[in-house]
Amino acid sequence: MVAGAAWFLIEVHRHGAAGVAERVVTALQSLWPFVVVTSCLRHRRTPATRP
Known about the structure:
- The protein is an all-alpha fold.
- It has a domain at 2-32.
- Helix content is 75%, strand content 0%.
């Protein structure tokens, strides 16, 4: 995400394709919560079973 934000700032400074960079950064930011939840669900601990 940091690379995308840097790309956006460079494009704004150079008067380039800031719209494309902004859309990529926004898409990554909107998908990030799903990545975190998926990671948590995949790595959750199972409760210990009693003998």
